[in-house]
Amino acid sequence: ESFLQMRIGLNLVALAANFFTSEAAAAHHPFVGEHADASAVHHPNGTISQRMTPKPAAFNKHAEFISRNGEVFKHEEEGPISRLSHAIFGKYETDFEKRVHDYQERRRNEQKQQYQSAYSGSSKRLGAGANFATILTNTDGFMWTGEIYMGKLSKMDVVYDTGSDWLTVEGADCGSCEGNTYDIGPSVDSGIAKPVKTEQSIRAYGSAELKGREYTDTVCILFSACVRDFEFFYIEEQRGIREPIDGILGMSRNKPFYLAPEEGNKTGPLYVEHLAKEGVISANKFSFYFTQPGSLSWVDLGEPIQGNIKTGAKIETVQLLKEDFFWGAFCEGVAIGDTSDANSYAWAELEGYSTWQPNNSFYSIIDTGSTAIMISAVYFESLVLAIFEKVPEAQWQFLEQEGVILTECNHEYPSVFFLFDGYWIEAAPKDYVFAVDDTQTQCIFFILPAGMAMNVIGMPLFVDYYTIHDPETGTVGYVPHTTSNKSDIVPGYASKTQFLEVSALENSIDGTALFISWSICLILMYLIFDYWNAFLRESWQKSLSETAFLAVTAVFFAAVIIIFVFLVQPLIYSALKSSLEEQ
């Protein structure tokens, strides 16, 4: 009872602290007073604060890279991530793809056994009764959108995406588009909008494929803050984008791909860059103020606003690659729980890939257009195992078809830190562990396996920080914002003796099940041979020439061997292993 009273008292103290923290933060809130209902506020220093709204993700631009059923690089897409992957690895199966595929094939039987155990028996187990359609949808999470005005008047909700370049908006002629669409006809008739190309082209963002044409038009953040003759992509047909998102506003850097400089700089028009060139905002910079869904978030276009920084907090400037289309860098390590040497890991050698460097760092992109932390499939399980070492009592499994970790919600999961430019940046558990059922008992990780030789680190690394982006220098300033419970990012280094290993978890082989399964297969194959010898051989010899008889016999037994090796034995082995483990 005394323990319960103490917990209640601590909760009341925490609620009071949160209340007063929120009240103090409101003093620097840009959307107060006359701006309380505004979508954007233009400050005297030239910076524009754009309100951002969390909405269920209408598409997953990295969906093609989520490792499900051993499939990687399964689409030929034209999005920036895809263009880079194709430039480095080619459009067809690569050694890396084979490595990931072979690794996941080794795990396939274990995953099938986990599925069976999740659904078998009368007792309630992890995964039993789970709505897997909901899980698959929830892996897309939330995206943050802001308003823009096409042709000065038509409001569109677009994703602010640091991992792409072009502004794309859904057009009125798009029969497959949902929600708000932009009718460009009146703007074309008045001469405000003009077609750039007459032929239709295709652009792809993971699960979304867009067809349309390029136009120039007047694009505004506020009625008084516009860029005239801005080139954008007008969507006339699309697959994969659902309401409530009407388009994508790219915020990448105007640089060539670091990993494929021979491709040259093919960056499309960048809206923030043009706002600065037109003198609408004070500088070609932007800063995100991200909180939890349900609380106010925004982006500052132009110079950062010091009032958005937590009192006493210090901005630490993280230098990313100076020449890269993405906000990319070589991540030097990962830490679980805290940043001590004992809890940190460097990236084990990935031989033959320029995305890994001899100092045990690994190429990674930070991206507001990704709702999750996407870890290269060859390091994924090693990272997950390191996390669950901190929570040994948790029951969990990897759902292969959905490509997610399913676990129990009632545990305290550790923060995961990523080391960039010698600074540890925190992804808190509340930002990567999410419930998928109404009872809040089953959760998924927003840490996903990616079938590519790089990481894409999304929203969990932005929440509760004020992140100051400078596209020209490739720096991002990290500092806790006024409502954040996070501490300053701290300098440090990764362990020189601990590594996230490549393909860390091998499929365990049950020797008994293996012996019995092959014994059964050999007996069955002998019976087939005996049947052939007794009933088929003589009739084949009579009806076929000697050459044809030998050819048909060879094909028949080759087919028998293939069926037993690749189908019958694995099925028998899996069933026996599952049965033996249950015993």
> Structural class, judged by helices and strands?
alpha+beta
Catalogue the unreliable spans.
Answer: 1-27, 68-78, 87-101, 106-139, 504-508
Largest sheet: 6 strands, mixed, barrel
Query: So what's the CATH class of the domain at 87-136 and 306-500?
Result: Mainly Beta
Distance between the termini: 42 Å
| Rg of Cα set | 28 Å
Number of strands: 31
CATH 4th-level superfamily of the domain at 87-136 and 306-500: Acid Proteases
Silhouette: globular
Q: CATH topology of the domain at 87-136 and 306-500, what is it called?
A: Cathepsin D, subunit A, domain 1
Give the integer mean of the pLDDT values.
Answer: 82
What is the tally of helical segments? 9
CATH architecture of the domain at 87-136 and 306-500: Beta Barrel
- Portion of residues within helices: 25-40%
Strand coverage percent: 25-35%
What's this entry about, in short?
The chain has 583 residues and is an alpha+beta fold.
